[in-house]
């Protein structure tokens, strides 16, 4: 089966990163703790719920949880976080993993005419690149067209940012031809509020039953043709 939308224009796929493409399995938490300790001088005692949130949003919540009155600005934390990831890159490669079917799906969609692939993530731009390069996934993605936590702490605002960045090459991307692929309610809300279709993948830990607000929910990414068909379905439905 081949992707049949090339006659109706291109499609922009925006991948969530954590628990959709990869999992750090504790390395991300360790990097966050190290960066937090470095910039605030305090040890990390507690974390809020972080799934589906952006890094500046998480940082602000953690600072508040620890009662820090005048926190160092987010960019200082973001730099420390990138350094902490670089220091742990070997550990990330060993302990983390690529989600089942993720690389095959990236490769398959990359071979389909009319599909552009980038990311929409709460991670900072620097950390996103480190995570993807650690697992060799960056080659499948146009990271310049992505939107990141350090672009805007309000995750739904990232959809328009990515669409604008991807549109500069002559293609126009909007609600009708943008598909977000993620693993959480935060991704579903981001797509609905920001203006995109959304495919949710349960392999990241959120049960299928809790992903019913997505346009399509998949158990995992192992059936690459099912992933392709889902993109076709949600984009054609909108016409
Ligand atoms: Mg996620």
UniProtKB/TrEMBL annotation:
Gene3D superfamilies: HAD superfamily/HAD-like (3.40.50.1000), Putative phosphatase, domain 2 (1.10.150.240). It holds the Pfam family HAD. SUPFAM superfamilies: HAD-like (SSF56784). This is Haloacid dehalogenase-like hydrolase. It comes from Nocardia tengchongensis.
């Amino acid at each position: 089966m081949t992707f049949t939308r090339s006659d109706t224009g291109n499609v922009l796929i925006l991948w969530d990163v954590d628990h959709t493409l990869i999992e750090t399995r504790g390395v991300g938490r360790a990097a966050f703790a190290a960066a937090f300790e470095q910039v605030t001088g305090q040890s990390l005692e507690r974390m809020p719920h972080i799934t589906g949130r952006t890094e500046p949003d998480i940082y602000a919540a953690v600072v508040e949880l620890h009662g820090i009155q005048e926190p160092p600005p987010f960019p200082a934390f973001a730099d420390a976080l990138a350094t902490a990831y670089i220091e742990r890159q070997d550990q990330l490669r060993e302990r983390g993993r690529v989600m089942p079917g993720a690389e095959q799906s990236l490769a398959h969609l990359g071979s389909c005419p009319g599909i552009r692939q980038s990311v929409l993530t709460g991670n900072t731009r620097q950390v996103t690149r480190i995570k993807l390069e650690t697992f060799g996934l960056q080659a499948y993605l146009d990271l310049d067209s992505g939107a990141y936590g350090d672009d805007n702490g309000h995750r739904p605002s990232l959809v328009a940012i990515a669409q604008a960045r991807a549109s500069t090459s002559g293609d126009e991307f909007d609600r009708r031809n943008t598909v977000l692929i993620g693993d959480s309610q935060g991704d579903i809300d981001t797509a609905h509020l920001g203006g995109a279709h959304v495919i949710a993948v349960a392999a990241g830990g959120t049960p299928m039953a809790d992903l019913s607000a997505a346009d399509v929910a998949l158990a995992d990414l192992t059936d690459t043709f099912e992933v392709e068909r889902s993109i076709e379905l949600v984009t054609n439905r909108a016409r």
